[in-house]
Amino acid sequence: MKGLGYTCHGTEINRRVYKKFKDSSPIAGFYTFLTKAVVIMDLDLIKNVLIKDFQYFSDRGLFHNERDDPLTGNLLFLDGGAWRMLRQKMSAVFTSAKVKCMFATIVKVAAKLEQACDIVVNNRGHQTEVEDLCARFTTDVIGECAFGIECNSLEEPRAEFREMGRNVFEQPRHSLLVQSFMICNAVLARQLRMKIFRNDTSKFFMSVIKETINLRKKDQIKRNDFMDLLIELMEKRENLSIQGFRYCKRNFADVPSRVRSLDIDDIQNFANSKSMISYCSETGIKP
């Protein structure tokens, strides 16, 4: 674990273990501080973990504290029964037909990206960071499809939604050492009521979600996006009891904050999307 987070990424640790044991063992174990971890090399075992026996390997290995830090209550952070319940409920939302309905929204944002690119091309004396341009595009797509709002970060690079999304990565609440403590001592960290996200970031996204839901229900607005699907799910008035947590209609308004593809899941996934688009751009220039 030497150098983790400072001189090497976590995936580098996994790569070292994999290269060391790939020819001698189907699996290899190591410790992430005080937590046991395993790297699987055998393809058949990998298939069993990901498909056949997936129900036994649902834990994410990340810290979550829904009581004090509601943004951690999503598919990326949750584990155990709460994760399985939420995944089961949200799987119906991600059918190909329902996701296809959002394509028109993506095309609309893509048209704005084209306009932004035209401005860049015409402004020959000014250098533009393509990765930042892609990040603003993915931010606008997430804002439209997940939150149902127009972020306008393509027109305004320092738009509030964009800045708050960047804060998730660039201004963490705790240092890397404290974050490691929270992951490795999750029970104690929850008892101490520790949080991952900054108060202003959490407050912003929670207020955006609640305001959007209230506005759509009040004015009967339909946009065929992800928020519509979540509101539809909320209105089923289901009562669910999982591991001592009771989910009913009054706190089902928190569902958007628990969904991997909505708030923090989407905010974190925008980094993957913009990196992929940037990579494709560079590959096109230098094949």
UniProtKB/TrEMBL annotation:
GO CC term, one of those recorded: endoplasmic reticulum membrane
GO molecular function: heme binding; iron ion binding; monooxygenase activity; oxidoreductase activity, acting on paired donors, with incorporation or reduction of molecular oxygen
Lineage, uppermost ranks: Eukaryota, Metazoa, Ecdysozoa, Arthropoda, Hexapoda
Cofactor(s) this protein cannot do without: heme
Protein name: Cytochrome P450
Subcellular location: Endoplasmic reticulum membrane; Microsome membrane
Bilayer topology: Peripheral membrane protein
Pfam families, A to Z: p450 (PF00067)
Record keywords, A-Z: Endoplasmic reticulum, Heme, Iron, Membrane, Metal-binding, Microsome, Monooxygenase, Oxidoreductase
Family recorded in the similarity comment: Belongs to the cytochrome P450 family.
